[in-house]
Task: inverse folding
């Protein structure tokens, strides 16, 4: 199967394996990736890693699929099924699959090789990106008249600022791992071949902590972007209060009774 899941108790790794096309995404695999992440969301796993097999994260939307949409009727039928519904109904699949999902648990992108065009958009959808030193991003679809439609124009400026986002998007240039780290497109750079190992280690570290607090802080960071400070503080308070009630006072009791003393957090 081109999409599979390695399931550990706390961390699931979602694997995409279409290495013959550098893990480009077509209709079938967009749905398979989405289903895999929905399965993760509904599971007891605490964090996920997203990894592309064969040396590349993802080369974007499958242009062979795109080429079949030259017929206006076929093109409109394809995009009509991916349009946003009216009101608060769940979003349909994006061309790249899970790019419209709003999960409650963290996803870490483990990036080797190319994460370009729609593949860059999937990387930006992840909460955290771990890149191999030889990996790279870029809006390579600029060369073919394909726009960013899976969150790239939304998430890129939120990470790097409007000017840098415009420069990267409009030039379509290669953005190597070191620069990605410097400008905020990656949170960690590791040696070639070690992105998955490092991402899974990070996911397991996150999974060790009390999860109500982890998810509350994650939710507050995401939900408060762009809000006025007072409104953002209200969101943070409400998210945090629920977690404190569920876990915080019990955790304080463990500290009172000796856990974590001397900087030893091996058994929390």
Result:
């Amino acid at each position: 199967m081109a999409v599979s899941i390695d399931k550990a108790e706390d961390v699931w790794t979602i694997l995409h394996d279409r290495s013959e096309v550098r893990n480009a995404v077509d209709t079938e695999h967009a749905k398979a990736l989405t289903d895999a992440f929905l399965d993760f969301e509904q599971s007891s796993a605490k964090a996920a890693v997203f990894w592309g097999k064969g040396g590349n994260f993802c080369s974007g939307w499958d242009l062979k699929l795109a080429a079949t949409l030259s017929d206006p009727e076929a093109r409109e039928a394809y995009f009509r099924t991916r349009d946003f519904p009216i009101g608060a109904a769940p979003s349909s699949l994006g061309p790249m699959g899970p790019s419209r999902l709003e999960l409650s648990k963290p996803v870490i992108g483990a990036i080797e090789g190319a994460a370009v065009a729609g593949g860059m958009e999937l990387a930006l959808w992840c909460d955290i990106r771990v890149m191999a030193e030889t990996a790279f991003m870029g809006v390579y679809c600029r060369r073919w008249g394909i726009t960013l439609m899976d969150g790239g124009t939304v998430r890129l400026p939120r990470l790097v600022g409007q000017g840098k986002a415009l420069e990267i998007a409009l030039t379509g240039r290669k953005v190597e791992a070191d620069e990605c780290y410097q400008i905020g497109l990656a949170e960690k750079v590791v040696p070639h071949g070690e992105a998955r190992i490092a991402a899974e280690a990070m996911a397991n570290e996150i999974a060790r902590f009390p999860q109500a607090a982890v998810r509350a802080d994650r939710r507050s960071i995401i939900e408060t972007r762009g809000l006025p400070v007072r409104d953002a503080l209200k969101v943070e308070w409400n998210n945090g209060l629920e977690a404190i009630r569920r876990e915080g006072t019990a955790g304080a009791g463990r500290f009172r009774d000796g856990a974590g003393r001397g900087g030893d957090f091996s058994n929390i």
The CA atoms of residues 226 and 232 lie 8 Å apart.
